[in-house]
Amino acid sequence: MAAAAAAGACLNHISRESTDIQRLAHFYKEIFGFEQVENPKFDFGVIWLKLGSSFYLHLIERDPNTKLPEGPWSATSAVADPKNLPRGHHVCIYIPNFDSFVQSLKDKGIKIHERVQADGKTKQVFFFDPDGNGLEVSSQSPVF
After folding, report:
1. pTM of the prediction?
2. CATH of domain 11-63
3. pLDDT at 104 over 60
């Protein structure tokens, strides 16, 4: 029954909490080309970013009273090493001009982990945003 009730569902947005939403917004705008869009009013700082026609990222000002660490790094390590991300928490974005995108990450000095899937066709690169959130960029759009 739950699946029938969710017919037509689609991803609305992904959120990231940060102590510095301006810094995080700058990163996503510079690295991926997100554009900032109008924000609804909240009792705390928020920034809404949009990529393409339907991918939204909601940056939320971190509650200063929280005790949790910022950024998950990976599922297996508390060390910021992108080689742990293929099995850790991450968001994946498909980039059609994959090789030039990876070169731009290298040019910016961003630490990355590159790999090729077993199919020999799909290239991936893993890295972190400034708050330690895992990111993947893939050379293939998802087709299953």
Report:
1. 0.79
2. 3.10.180.10
3. yes
